[in-house]
Amino acid sequence: MIFTSSGAGYHSESKAKEYKHVCKRACQRAVDRLRAGGLALEAVTAALMELEDSPFTNAGTGSNLNLSGEIECDASIMDGKSLNYGAVGALSGENKSHLYFVSFLVGKGAEQWAISHGIPACPTEKMTTKFSLSGYKRNKRKMELAEQVETKRKRQLCGHENNSACLDTVGVVVVDREGNVAAAVSSGGLAMKHPGRVGQAAHYGCGCWAENARDVSLYSTAVSTSGSGEHLIRTMLARECSTAMQAENTHQALLEAMQNKFISSPFLAGEDCVLGGVIVLRCCTCGEAQRSEDIQALLVEFLWSHTTESMCVGYMSAQDSKARTHISRLPPGAVAGQSLAIEGGVCRLGTVSD
C-alpha cells in the first residue's frame, strides 16, 4: 500500500490535473517496486524520487529559490523495521533520496558525502524551473520595494498567490507485503528563505516517522508532514500523530492530535495561523487471518488531515490497477490555519507468510 502527497498548501483548480498526475506517477513507481518483491524502504524511495523530479512540486526540481536565488533542499527517510533514520538539510544539486541512514548531514558536507558514495550530482541550473525562477524574481522585486519588518514580509510572500510554492513539501508512507512500514519527506523550503535555513523535512520526529509494531497489541504506523516548517518543528507533529494512531478510533485520534497537538499547541500559543498537513498510515494483521498458516491479511487504514486551504493526495495498493487521487479542501467558510479537514479510508491486503 502506497500513500503519497504533493503537499499541503493552496492548489489552484487550473493545475489540479498536474498535481494529481504527480501523485499517480509516484504511486505507480512504488507499486511497481512492491510487485517486484521490494520492501517498504525501496518503494518509499522510488515514490519520493518521482515527486522530487516533478516541476510542479516544491522538492528537488522546481524547488523554491532562497534569498540568493539558489536551491537548498531538505529531506528525511525512516525505516519502521530497523527504526533507522537519515536526513539531509540545505542541500543543493544532489538527489536527496539516497540518504542511507547517516543521521543528519547538511550543506557542503552532505554534497561531499554523496559524491564519495557514487551518487551523481545534479547541477542547480537543471533543478531550477521557469516557474521557480519567475517566483524568485517576483518576490525579489517585492522585497526591494517593501520597507517592512521581517514577519510582515514573510506573511506577504506566503500569502494566497504563493501558498503552494511556500508549503508544498512532498511526502510518502508505505507498507509492504510483510507488514513493514516506511516514511519519507522532501522539500525545497520557504520561498526567499535565508540561505542555510533547514525546515521540518530534515528534523527527526517532525518531517516523517515510521515504526513497526513491537507487540501484537500495537499498530505499525507511518506519517509524513507538510506545511509551515517552524510550526511542524515546534510541535514534532509526525511523531505526535504516530503516537495518536495507537488509539482504537483512528479518525477521532487524528482529529484530536491535529487540534490539541498542533492548532492549539502551547508551543504555538503566539501563532494565529497554524499551517500544516499530514498523511498517516497504520496497519495490523487481521484477527481472523491469524488462523491460517499460509495466508495473512493486513488491515490498512490511511488518513490525511490539513489546516491549509488544500492538500493533494494519492493512494494505491499492489492489487489496484491504478492510483486514486484527490485534492482535499477545507469546508466552505473555514479559515486556513484555524480549521482543519480530515478524510481517509480502509483496505485489506493479502500477504504470504514465511
Automatic annotation (TrEMBL):
The active site is at residue 169. One of its GO terms (cellular component) is cytosol. GO terms for molecular function: threonine-type endopeptidase activity. Pfam families: Asparaginase_2. The record marks 168-169 as: Cleavage. InterPro entries: Ntn_hydrolases_N, Peptidase_T2, Taspase1. Keywords: Hydrolase, Protease, Zymogen. One of its GO terms (biological process) is proteolysis. Intramolecular proteolysis generates 2 subunits, alpha and beta, which reassemble through a non-covalent association to form the fully active enzyme. Belongs to the Ntn-hydrolase family. This is Threonine aspartase 1.
